[in-house]
């Protein structure tokens, strides 16, 4: 399944461990080992890659329970394509994908942890910062 948003093609389920590693490192993140990436990809709810022609320029994956809660993970756009509509195309595609996967009367939670630099981007799509007036802060812990 692919869809063209702006000049980019979004492909569903074409994210390989090697491509993940390349896109992950392109934004300055230290990549996990290939075996760990493969396990994570195999257990993801969905994975999307943005292409400019044949060139992969961004990715995002969704983890979740398939019914009530989804989490946006590993959202990366290579630096030379940032602020050029790739992230927007990925977000629109993943939201449409989730909406189309759920029965019409279901409401689901879509969550993420943002870098400080990306907060404004996510706010454009209706995400609220945590803590907010009615809930506690988003939190995480790394286990080694």
TrEMBL record:
Residues 10-144 form the N-acetyltransferase domain. InterPro entries: Acyl_CoA_acyltransferase (IPR016181), GNAT_dom (IPR000182), NSI-like (IPR045039). Its EC number is 2.3.1.-. The keyword Acyltransferase applies. CDD domains: NAT_SF (cd04301). Gene3D superfamilies: 3.40.630.30. Keywords: Acyltransferase, Transferase. It is an enzyme of class 2 (transferase). GO terms for molecular function: acyltransferase activity. Pfam families: Acetyltransf_10. This is GNAT family N-acetyltransferase. The lineage of its organism: Bacteria, Bacillati, Bacillota, Clostridia, Eubacteriales.
